[in-house]
């Protein structure tokens, strides 16, 4: 089976309506109705507990940055919740609105939700549980291309049953460190897609599954893209030998363009299989230091 990686980031809409819609999706999970002024005021009430002064554009930019982290601010809600969830549960939840996510963290950490408080205070109380000063030690770091990342499959791979378009989910197993900071945290989840499938054929022809390896999310919410190239392939060959994985070779681009090849038969690569991918291209992300800010 073969894993491939393709590019394709979506452009951000930095217009006032675009930023407002993105802030609403981040907080509530969907866009809201009403005039721009009404929607901004509603967000401010929920986030800060009161409406803010100033121009509508500035107020929208502040909400957008704080709720999405798109401006790269270390104090964004995204960063704070990701750090809390990583430190307590070693995971990073994606795909849900911030309101729902905060409620789930409050139940898991505090034992009850704090719906009577504005979002700003609710996030701060969660951070202070794991980081009493409330000031996270995060700084930008650059993750080099070809950095190895150990991952664990969350989706079964099977050349007999997989279809083009199937999701391939995985989780980072070990922290990736850059300059003494956690750049890609253990527990971060990624997702790829099956792009081609060939079932095993007579005369020993192997089953084959090609996958766009996709990306995993980091502390600041940005995505780091992965592939399986020569460095990861060498590590995976050693893993396969060490683990005595019967009938399974984890190969790289030489002859296979990177991935899994099942020798002469259909073969299931089960959930829980661990192996290496690598960073497809250099990426700048916020890195977390566990040393308190001085």
Would you identify the CATH H-level superfamily of one domain?
Type IV secretion system, VirB10/TraB/TrbI
Average the pLDDT over all residues and give the rounded result.
84
Rg from alpha-carbon coordinates: 22 Å
According to CATH, what is the class of one domain?
Mainly Beta
The CATH topology of one domain comes to Lipocalin
Key words describing this protein structure:
294 residues, alpha+beta, Lipocalin, six-stranded antiparallel barrel, 15 strands
Secondary-structure map:
Blueprint: E1 2-4, H1 16-28, H2 36-48, H3 56-68, H4 77-89, H5 98-109, H6 119-130, E2 138-143, E3 148-153, E4 157-158, E5 167-172, E6 176-178, E7 181-184, E8 189-198, E9 208-217, E10 223-227, H7 230-243, E11 248-251, H8 253-256, E12 259-262, E13 268-269, E14 274-279, E15 283-288
Parallel strand pairs: 1-9
Antiparallel strand pairs: 2-15, 3-5, 3-14, 4-13, 5-8, 6-7, 8-9, 9-10, 10-14, 11-12
